[in-house]
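I am still learning, so would you mind making up any protein sequence you like and the tokens describing how it folds?
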Amino acid sequence: MFDTMKHLLLFLSLFLITTGSLAAQGMPDPQVPQGENLKVPEGWKVRLDRPNSEVVIGDDAESADIFFVNMTPGWHLTTGPAGIFYHPASTVEGDFTLQATTYLFDTKGRNREGFGVFIGGSDLDGDNQRYIYFLLRNTGEYLIKERVGSETKLLQGWTKTDAMTMFTEETESTAQNDFVIDVKGDEVTFMLNGTALTTMPRSKVQPDGIFGLRVNHSVNLHISDLTLAN
């Protein structure tokens, strides 16, 4: 695991607080910790790609396999194994705009590991889990994919985009990227840093359901916003 605490201290010294808005009562508010700050968020669930009861999800960066804590505004997450992270109250349907702001830390050369958000979540505790995920990786590429059960299907393969802010030595500790998924009528538009990357028909995406975070192996990430826009 990365030297998480070192990066957190540097990040906190540079970080400017961002704001998010909530569209429904009960959804996690990035401005208010779910439980105690610097502790594992209360009420959140984690589903690993490969279930393993021995994986420790905790607030000790040295001993946890997955370091996941409230860090207002938002949450900090340093993964070992890959998985999804969500609060069951984060459910939406109809027209909506999901926005998320992420800060990627030193990749330690693991530039091909993806991170981002998911929508359309259902049966996330069961055998028939289903969600659509929108990821970046530090090669300057994005991906849109569907998972149903144990199977995945590409909706948009890894595609180069100039819209991504990549982590480099020149970024001085972190790289910010703003995700937006805009669902209006029969169209779903995936955006990054104000640039529309692609638009798909609603029937293909089926966006209604739970939304949350999707983070692959060994990614060190701060998420300052994960909300629905007004």
About this structure: Residues 113 and 212 are 18 Å apart (CA to CA).
